[in-house]
Design brief:
The chain is α/β, with parallel strands linked by helices and 1165 residues long. It contains 37 helices and 31 strands. The chain is elongated, with a radius of gyration of 55 Å. The model is unreliable at 105-110 and 1066-1088 (pLDDT under 50).
């Protein structure tokens, strides 16, 4: 061994290889994905035999427990990818030592033991289903084959089926005797001739392999592919390949979800697509938007969960997010996407098997939705073409009006000159008047002062208050000076006397102040005994002032403290003597002032003086009158000029506004956007109009030319243009619908590896392996369902074969993941809708019992009064909304067993009679209704179809549209009227499927206006299970209270004969022909430059508008295509260096022009 070369390889294995490895291993493991890790641990050295087959397949031979195991696959560098495991022996190989390095995901440790154990159970369950399917497979050999009427006919001599093989798949066998390629389904087998309906359109490829001796197999292809995809989903989750890395953590424990803070979206009515949503619906949408990982919505029947899904899709779309809508059934997917309204931001696409798409989903399959989209584009471009034509016409008509506008502009210029002249005049007068107004106050203040004081100086100073434009009245001033000279001598004398009076009065007050102090300081006895004999014969200014100053000195020398005791008496005597002296002087002053007053009086009353003063005052009055006369004269001129100016301004403004009114249209308002209307320049006006006209006209002509070519291109469905547009739509679709299992196809995984949001509708019907496939793709998961309705379908035989000791854990298989998560979650991550709008309140009353122990505790019916069934007449009243035609529990009405199913002949006849009754009443009431017929058993479905459809009886119904199916098919659907056939009626009171309240809930809640039950109340109420009996008894009592009980034996025989057409029956068996030409794998057109039709027009627009304004919105508007399509292609062209895209503007580059030239030649071909 030491001399043998050692290889070190990284090991990874396909899911199929792991399944095959399991067959050769006795190693215990919790889940199969661990098997390679256990059998080939890291750094363990194995002795192997290696060989290369056909120059590319590497085979590595091992020996485990004495058994040969060969791993086959591809080797690239040091990476070995195993695709197959067999027990063959390598005879001609090389001995080597091998050390495997296992490929592990960083999220491998997320899978805890409990989850591993649950996955192991699901692996066992899936494998049990596969084994069961294999037991019903048949291998045979092709003797010869041919194509006839697009069917493959195979002659075989060794096919011996032991059961019905119709609708099973036919495929080729590989070297391991396993189906390798299913190419069709069995239509029938007669006398060693097998008739096959091929899948797709690859007949030539199929026939090239269908040669004599080819080994084939008939098998359940649906089960086979379903099991493989479910295993693949579990494998990917275990390997940590989920887009949301936390998915393994919260898959069974919702409390581990939403650990990070999400958005805080609060919706208002303005933000909603559906403005009439109720508070719970809005809360559900907000919760879904704000959740980081997971949100749960329980939607009982008719509560608008599909409306909520549509709103979530819309809210995601406007936020630029991509949404995947999935469900366990095609019908549920189609119902969901059909309600996603046709909004510009929502681009819906239905993926999956077109043969299984229901009528509701038809408009959204690839070809249909693309044709609708192209039709919308065509309609938009038609409107744009009309718009551009209108714009060009408008441009021409607008330009023809220019001479008229030019004449208006010239008139404005003349009015502007007149306005400017008056404004300059007004400015001059206004300044003079404002100056005169200010100086007038100063003038009259000076004149008043001169008047009161007979002051010529003040009057002369008033000369300075005359504005420059006022005339100075010199004659009045000369008279004023003459009159002043006549009174000047007397005035000077009077002013002199008045000055003396003022002096003596002031000193009298000062002496009085000294007297007051002396009388307060010196005792009155001393003053009274003191006398002064001196006399003042004449008091003059000098004497008065001298004595006062002497008194001040005496008062200032007053002694204080000790000195007061020594010198106080002597000071008092001196002060008293001064008091007497000053007293005598005051008497002299009083006599003198009397004489002065007499002199002043005599002067002022002199006749000549008074006449001269009056003449002086008269002159001052004349000055004031002259000033005011000039002021008011000037003011009058100003007011006239002001009025003239205002008229000129008004005329000018009116003409400007009139001009603006004539240019309010789009053309002139844009052409003269920055034009200065206050200073109209005629040359500039003409230049702006001509320039704008030229730019817009040329731009519109360019767009129209591009638009004409675009319309021609998109109308040609036979060219590559259609394929390229189809590819564009598919690439930009932001709401994708598909079933859970189909989301695991190879093509879907490659084209749609991830989504921002995955919405799983009818989640309560799905098992974990079902919904793990789409959950792997979502950054956020929204589960919508109702665990009070149909549960997941579990194959009982496969379930019984699961090896699990823990019964509680095993029972979880029958519990939907939605129910488990909903019951474990907090109220912050779930919402229950409880206002139902589908059913009349009487119908809703029947199912209220199923929602007692829920978040809301009941269902409300706010709009039931509008649910009128229009079937009143024979046997039915207008207020009957629930009716039970009771079938007696007697032998002649008993059920019949068909294999594992049941049918009831009497109930089928009753259904037929009821339909005739309804047809008669609807005919009489001139109304049309959709009717669904529901039963719990396929045998009863077939029996009713035999009585109504296969024999053409349904053609008699002209006022009814029929849909027939089992309860499972009807979940998520609604009809105006529902007829239920219970089918079971026996002496043991066995009711089968009807034991499940969830199944009954679905059956009772499909009708909007009228629910009719046909069945034996005695059989169902007396069933062995107490809870089940109580459920049917509640239904029975409510209908009885509403006067809806009737005897089925009393149903009348009515003959219906109608000339209606054949379009009143809906069932997938009759609709399949619609899809025969559908191809989900269209080959998209391409060219060597990888430039598609939209790129071509973007580049062409960029070239046409080179160095001009060009935006995504421009192109979007003209081509009639949503901006997101344009923007994505613009980003691509920018990446390819063909255009420059900056600040939202597009400019073509030289490489873009070259690519465009090459593309032009291609599109000409």
């Amino acid at each position: 061994m030491d001399n043998t070369k050692t290889l070190h390889l990284n090991l990874s294995m396909s899911p199929r290889a792991i399944d095959e490895l399991k067959q050769y291993s006795n190693v215990k493991y919790n889940s199969k994905y661990e098997l390679p890790l256990i059998m080939f641990p890291d750094n363990k050295t194995f002795e192997i035999t290696a060989a290369v087959i056909d120059g590319k397949t590497v085979c590595l031979g091992f020996i485990f427990d004495g058994k040969n195991i060969v791993l086959s696959g591809g080797l690239e560098h040091n990476n070995f990818f195993c695709t197959s495991v067999t027990d063959k022996t390598i005879t001609d190989g090389r001995k080597l030592n091998l050390v495997f390095l296992q490929e592990k995901s960083e999220d491998f440790t997320y899978i805890n033991e409990e989850i591993k154990q649950r996955f192991a159970m699901w692996y066992d369950y899936i494998e049990s289903m596969q084994k069961k399917a294999e037991q019903n497979s048949y291998k045979f050999t092709c003797d010869s084959a041919e194509v006839k009427n697009e069917k493959i006919i195979i002659i075989t001599s060794n096919l011996k089926p032991s059961a019905v093989i119709r609708n099973l798949s036919v495929g080729f066998l590989d070297e391991k005797n396993q189906p390798s390629w299913g190419f069709g389904k069995v239509e029938r087998y007669e006398s060693q001739v097998l008739f096959i309906q091929p899948f797709g359109s690859e007949l030539s490829k199929i026939m090239s392999r269908l040669t004599a001796g080819t080994h084939l197999i008939i098998y359940d292809g649906a089960v086979d592919i379903t099991c493989k995809r479910m295993k693949s989903g579990l494998d990917k989750l275990c390997k940590g390949e989920a887009v949301n890395r936390r998915l393994p953590e919260f898959l069974f424990d919702p409390k581990k979800a939403n650990r990070e803070i999400g958005e805080n979206v609060i919706l208002t009515v303005e933000n909603l697509l559906t403005k009439t949503m109720n508070p719970e619906q809005i809360s559900a949408v907000e919760g879904a938007l704000n959740a980081e990982d997971l949100y749960l919505i329980q939607g009982p029947p008719g509560t608008g969960k599909t409306t909520v899904i549509a709103e979530i899709c819309y809210q995601n779309a406007v936020r630029g997010l991509k949404t995947l809508i999935v469900s366990q059934s095609n019908l549920a997917v189609d119902n969901a996407i059909s309600r996603v309204m046709n909004h510009a931001d929502i681009r819906v696409l239905r993926k999956g098997d077109a043969l299984r798409v229901e009528e509701e989903g038809l408009p959204f399959v690839e070809d249909n939705v693309v044709r609708t989209w192209i039709s919308q584009i065509s309609e938009a471009t038609k409107k744009m073409d009309k718009n551009l034509t209108g714009r060009l016409t408008f441009l021409k008509e607008s330009k023809e009006r220019f001479p008229e506008l030019l004449e208006l502009a010239e008139n404005i210029k003349e009015l502007e000159k007149n306005k400017n002249f008056h404004e300059s005049q007004l400015y001059f007068f206004q300044n003079v008047l404002e100056d005169a107004k200010k100086q007038r106050a100063d003038f009259f203040e000076l004149i008043t002062d001169a008047y009161e004081n007979d002051d010529l100086e003040k009057a002369n100073k008033a000369r300075d208050c005359y504005p420059p434009d006022f005339k100075l009245p010199n004659s009045i001033y000369n008279d004023l000076e003459d009159k002043y000279m006549d009174i000047k001598a007397d005035l000077d004398m009077i002013r002199e006397y008045e000055a003396d009076m003022k002096f003596y009065n002031e000193y009298t007050e000062k002496f009085v102040s000294q007297f007051r102090y002396i009388t307060e300081t010196v005792s009155s006895r001393i003053i009274e005994r003191t006398a002064y004999e001196g006399v003042f014969y004449y008091a003059d200014r000098e004497m008065v002032q001298s004595l006062y100053e002497e008194g001040e000195r005496i008062l200032d020398s007053e002694p204080y403290g000790i000195k007061r005791l020594i010198f106080g008496h002597k000071w008092n005597q001196v002060a008293a003597i001064y008091y007497r002296r000053a007293e005598n002087l005051i008497m002299s002053i009083q006599l003198k002032t009397i004489r002065i007053c007499d002199k002043i009086y005599n002067l002022k009353t002199d006749r000549e003086f008074t006449d001269n003063v009056e003449s002086f005052h008269f002159c001052l009055d004349a000055l004031g009158e002259d000033y005011d006369a000039q002021y008011y004269s000037f003011k009058g001129k100003y007011e006239k000029i002001y009025n003239d100016c205002m008229n000129a301004v008004r005329d000018y403004k009116y003409s400007v506004e009139y001009f603006k009114e004539h240019i309010k249209d789009d053309f002139y308002s844009a052409a003269l956007k920055n034009f200065d209307f206050e200073k109209i320049n005629l040359d500039e006006l003409e230049y702006n109009v001509n320039r704008y006209y030229s730019i817009r006209y040329n731009r519109y002509k360019k767009w129209k030319k591009l638009l004409d070519e675009w319309r021609n291109r998109i109308s040609d469905e036979s060219s590559n243009n259609y394929s390229e547009l189809k590819k564009l739509y598919i690439e930009n679709a932001n709401v994708i619908g598909i079933t859970c299992i189909q989301s695991g196809t190879k093509d879907f995984n490659e084209n749609y590896p991830s989504f921002d949001v995955v919405i799983i509708d009818e989640a309560s019907k799905s098992t974990p392996p079902d919904i793990i496939l789409p959950m792997l793709k979502g950054r956020k998961i929204i589960l919508v369902g109702d665990h009070k309705q149909l549960p997941p379908f579990i194959d009982q035989n496969a379930y019984d074969e699961i090896e699990e000791d823990d019964d509680q854990l095993k029972k979880l298989i029958k519990v939907s993941l939605f129910e488990e998560l909903y019951e474990k979650s907090g109220t912050d991550m779930r919402t229950m809708l409880f206002r139902q709008y589908r059913m009349h309140k009487d119908i809703a009353a029947l199912i209220n019992q199923f929602y007692v122990n829920t978040d809301a505790g009941r269902l409300e019916s706010p709009a039931s009064e509008f649910k009128r069934h229009c079937c009143q007449g024979r046997g039915i009243n207008a207020d009957n909304h629930v009716i039970w035609y009771d079938v007696p529990n007697i032998e002649k009405y008993y059920e019949k067993k068909n294999n594992k199913s049941y049918s009831n002949e009497f109930e089928a006849e009753c259904i037929k009679k009821i339909l005739c009754l309804l047809e008669k009443n609807l005919t009489d009431n001139n109304s049309h209704k959709s009717i669904g017929i529901i039963t719990f058993y396929d045998a009863q479905v077939k029996l009713i179809e035999e009585k109504l459809i296969n024999n053409g009886y349904y053609k008699r119904f002209g006022h009814i549209t029929l849909r027939i199916g089992s309860v499972d098919r009807f979940q998520g659907m609604e009809e105006d009227i529902i007829l239920i056939s219970f089918a079971r009626n026996n002496n043991e009171h066995a009711i089968g499927f009807a034991r499940d309240s969830r199944r009954i809930n679905v059956a009772l809640s499909r009708a909007k206006e009228l629910l009719i039950i046909v069945g034996s109340s005695d059989n169902f109420i007396k069933s062995g299970n107490n809870e089940t009996s109580k459920m049917f008894e509640t239904v029975y009592n409510i209908i009885k209270k509403l006067d809806g009980l009737k005897n089925a034996e009393d149903l009348p025989e009515l003959y219906v004969n109608s000339d209606s057409n054949d379009n009143n029956f809906e069932t997938s068996a009759y609709e399949s022909s619609i899809y025969q030409n559908y191809n989900d794998e269209t080959e998209y057109g391409n060219n060597e430059n990888n430039i598609n039709i939209l790129d071509y027009f973007i580049l062409k627009a960029a070239l046409e508008f080179k160095n001009e304004y060009l935006s995504v919105k421009n192109i979007s508007n003209v081509l009639g295509i949503a901006p997101v399509f344009i923007k994505n292609r613009v980003q691509y062209l920018k990446k390819e260096n063909l255009i420059e895209y900056r600040n939202q503007l597009i400019q073509i580059k030289p490489h873009g022009e070259e690519a465009l030239n090459c593309t032009v030649e291609i599109y000409k071909q």
